[in-house]
Amino acid sequence: MSNSQKQHKEEVRLMKGNEAIAHAAIRCGCDGYFGYPITPQSEILETLVELEPWKTTGMVVLQAESETASINMVYGAAGCGKKAMTSSSSPGVSLMQEGISYMVGAELPGVIVNVMRGGPGLGTIQPSQADYFQTVKGGGHGDYKMITLAPASVQEMADFTVLAFDLAFKYRNPTMVLADGIIGQMMEKVVLPPFQPRWTEEEIRKNTPWATLGKQKNSKPNVITSLELRSEEMEKINLRLQSRYREMEKNEVRYEEIMCEDAEYIIVAFGTTARVSQKAVELARAEGIKAGLLRPITLFPYPSEILMSYTSRIKGILTVEMSAGQMVEDVKLSVCGKVPVEFYGRMGGIVPSPNEVLDALKEKLIK
Amino acid sequence: MNVTDIINPSNLVYDKTSVMNDTPMHYCPGCSHGVVHKLIAEIIEEMDIQDKTIGIAPVGCAVFAYKYLDIDWQQAAHGRAPALATAIKRLLPDRYVFTYQGDGDLAAIGTAETIHACNRGENIAIIFINNGIYGMTGGQMAPTTLEGMKSSTSPHGREIPLNGYPLNITNLLAQMDGTCYVTRQAVHTVASVRKCKKAIQKAFENSMQNKGTSVVEIVSTCNSGWKMTPDESNKWMVENMFPEYPMGDLKNI
Amino acid sequence: MTEEIIISGFGGQGVLSMGKILAYSGLMQGQEVSWMPSYGPEQRGGTANVTVILSDERISSPVLNHYDTAIVLNQPSLEKFESKVKPGGTLIYDGNGFHKFPTRKDINIYRIDAIEYAYANNAVKTMNMIILGGLLKVRPIVEIENVLKGLKKSLPERHHHLLGKNEEAIRIGMDLIKKEN
Lengths: 367, 253, 181
Known about the structure:
CATH topology of chain B: Rossmann fold
Number of strands of chain B: 9
Radius of gyration of chain C: 15 Å
CATH superfamily of chain B: Thiamin diphosphate (ThDP)-binding fold, Pyr/PP domains
Strand content of chain B: 15-25%
Radius of gyration of chain B: 18 Å
Largest sheet of chain C: 7 strands, mixed
Largest interface: A-B, 39 and 34 residues
Strand order of the largest sheet of chain C: 2-3-1-4-5-6-7
Oligomer: heterotrimer
Number of helices of chain C: 6
Order of helices and strands of chain C: EHEEEHEEHHHHE
CATH architecture of chain C: 3-Layer(aba) Sandwich
Distance between the termini of chain B: 56 Å
CATH class of chain C: Alpha Beta
Shape of chain B: globular
Structural class of chain B: alpha/beta
Number of helices of chain B: 10
Shape of chain C: globular
Strand order of the largest sheet of chain B: 2-1-3-4-8-7-9
């Protein structure tokens, strides 16, 4: 075994999705995490304080008084060009919507992790995907979008934490990692990302010249604000944001296709339901049904083009979600009525089983 | 001798601090904000910390504070300034970080953020303008509005059974172990302006000494909202606000 | 090979950690693994369960409705999971406190009285390892050597002196398990 292989092997760990996020944050040079406990994601904060990264990388970890404070701490840190993040679960993320809208308005990068649980209201602590609309259609006020990454494994919890920071800074916009209670709580193998040093102040000044680090001599002060009372100027800001979202749509669509090449029926699902649906596809194939799975990885921007490209050769689409049917609207918009689009979902924290999904496929599309 | 002969450095008796720029202020004539802005700007110049200071502007009349002082600023959502300041100071401990907040921002919608920043003893300075009214939105009742005081949402005067008591949040903050300096000042006379400047300077200095949070409440006038002349406002403040919000240090460690 | 296992019992019986040790053992022998606990108040009492999958291939669903093997340590767990064992699969139960017993004929049923043994022999802390030993006797899905490696990996170093006790518990479990049908 070569040294690099050996090192690689040592890096394979078994951990929960929530823990993987904490490790990945430290490793990718995150400067600050601010959060408030809520099931099923408290392990993120717990793992971070256990690891004490302030002693190694200098990363700040702070338990805030509320999710409202957490997201505003992320705002403050991001305004200084720092890599900052928070995490919560559905009710807490609802509280963060104000802050997210302000971050978008002030053009601040940052990462928000939502390990979704069933709602509405206090709901349940069991997994759900019912915050899809809130996330991709804009849960806060104003016209805005966020790149939304939907991990379906512990490995992706780690990988997408790193990617989310890259995308946030690339577009000066917050990025959401939209997971659910299963992905947060389950343990799988994970290879953690390599260590990257935190940006030095010099690097911050270079990478984010807008950051408020203290006004430099002979330069104008930097001001982080989302306020512009002149409508003409405010519309210009909106147009700039909108063109940024078009760029995201052009560059950042991500998805995974499983057995789609010869598929007659496509299941569309993300996160945990994609894993369940993959099993349903395996069961279907064993029965001779040509099923495939399209797993959107970015929920905004949505993989509409690939869905449209299937329409000439497939008989139908089944969308599976842990909700009353939210993403299915985007699937319908993507295929413009060219093929039937059916929906199967469970709510309230129930995870559909692979057999349920297979039955729904047969019942709704094959008959 | 013409005008240009008179305007020369040797005749200079007063010069505006360079930290304050020439943008015309939106504040009403007689408002306390302008004076407090100037004091902060002077302190920043005198301490030579223009490159090390980050201010947090609130929502309220001072929402545009960032237009007048040439320092780096962040503008916070309503009430959240102490949360922003917490993160900034923790990530940049060698910077002077201050919030500038009104009574609605600090003592109503931002009560939680204020109390918890003070309870953690964040090494920041909180400048708190208390004029007992929401000025920016047109004179509505604030948590600090006095009993019987009229506002557009208490047109018959604040009634305790309906609206509760005036909130003396500074007294509360002085009780907290995380604060090191809590004081109540005003800027209605030359003497009080001088005292207030010293208080703000002390708050700034404290923030580098790892002692905890400093809070400077400045009992202020809002002559537009109070519907009085600036002079009447000052008198009314002394007679009515000061008994409820007495001047002086509440805590100085 | 893929082995889909559910372990279910009272919170505090070591159900989740038994699953964790299995998952670590799979990791040690280079398999794909997933460990999916029931989470929430169950952890502090009530009935807790964990789904463990060991496979040579990428694991699709971490959540299942049928299992190759079910290990049930209390009555509610038996009632919930007996019907969910695949035909030809394995059910292992600890009959302590049971008043209704497994009835299926199309699965292999084993009984292991680990709870009784553990209380009688001052071995409550390794009770879950006794049960794990029973499992490995009838379903040798992981090598004992890899279990011990996995234990070492999952236990904090201050507990490493207990590794011997754990190995012993596995051997006890292997003797204790009895086939019922």
